[in-house]
Specification:
Structural class: alpha/beta
Number of helices: 6
Strand content: 15-25%
Helix content: 25-40%
Distance between the termini: 17 Å
Radius of gyration: 18 Å
Length: 261
């Protein structure tokens, strides 16, 4: 059975990087990874924001920033109570703007795994789920070129040998973004995949925010500001838990795929 896995720049401090015009059909995927440095022992989420109108979207989000006097980076991790009005408006805007789309993959943790096997399983899970995501996104967007905007530090892209630092003593995570792109291109011959970091513009911040909310729904939220925003998102989607949307194509602009072990 085929699984249909259909599942942000401040006014003052972020410089918009222009999108490159291409003759072929291409998509810029603004990506956030949540908890993939611990993917072997805890649930993890990859989230993608994409649109056909990035300049229009960026301009409108900056208008929301001005309206709500919010110039800081928007991230799910932040507990800043002053982000609340802006983030609420951003959620509403997503559902009012038909050109905005979000896709996520939720990967359950691996249980009963020997420590010596964690590194191998970890990298396999990471790469394979990206490959499946790209396959789904190709089907969703009809694109034959993807530019990946990862939320990360710029130094990562200048060092092909970059490796994530260890989060716990017995996990060594070796897959760099450059290695990941080479893997994706070697396994998906009908899509060209390249890295084009924008370093936390408005769209990548939106990816961070929605991806983090899915992760928060998985592990639970205690912070009041986060809880209010998650509840507002669930109301807009018409669900009591975001997990109710796993592997459903009812909402074709906010899609969550879940991989259960």
């Amino acid at each position: 059975m085929k699984q249909f896995s259909l599942g942000t720049a401040s006014l003052a401090v972020f410089n918009e990087i222009p999108y490159k015009p291409k003759s072929s059909v291409c998509k810029h995927l603004h990506i956030k990874e949540t908890n993939f440095t611990l993917a072997a022992i805890a649930p993890s989420v990859i989230g993608f924001i994409y649109t056909d109108s990035p300049e229009k979207i960026n301009k409108h989000i900056n208008e929301l920033r001005a309206k709500n006097h919010y110039k800081k980076t928007l991230s799910f991790r932040s507990t800043d109570k002053y982000k609340l009005p802006f983030a609420m408006d951003l959620i509403d805007y997503f559902f009012d703007e038909p050109s905005l789309h979000f896709y996520a993959r939720v990967v359950d943790r691996v249980v009963d795994l020997k420590r010596n096997d964690i590194n191998l399983i970890h990298d396999i899970e990471y790469r394979v789920n990206y490959r499946k995501a790209i396959q789904d996104l190709k089907e969703l967007t009809n694109a034959d070129v993807f530019y990946l905007d990862f939320i990360t530090q710029p130094s990562e892209f200048s060092d092909p040998g970059f490796a994530f630092k260890n989060e716990i003593p017995y996990i060594t995570f070796k897959t760099s973004k450059n290695q990941l792109v080479k893997y994706l291109n070697s396994h998906e011959h009908t899509v060209d995949v390249e890295i084009e970091p924008h370093h936390r513009n408005n769209l990548s911040q939106m990816a961070d925010f929605f991806t983090g909310n899915i992760y928060g729904d998985v592990i639970g939220i205690e912070n009041k500001t986060k809880w209010i925003l998650l509840e507002h998102l669930k109301r807009k989607l018409g669900v009591k838990k975001l997990s109710h949307m796993y592997n459903s194509n009812v909402n074709k602009r906010f899609i969550i795929s879940s991989i259960h072990k």
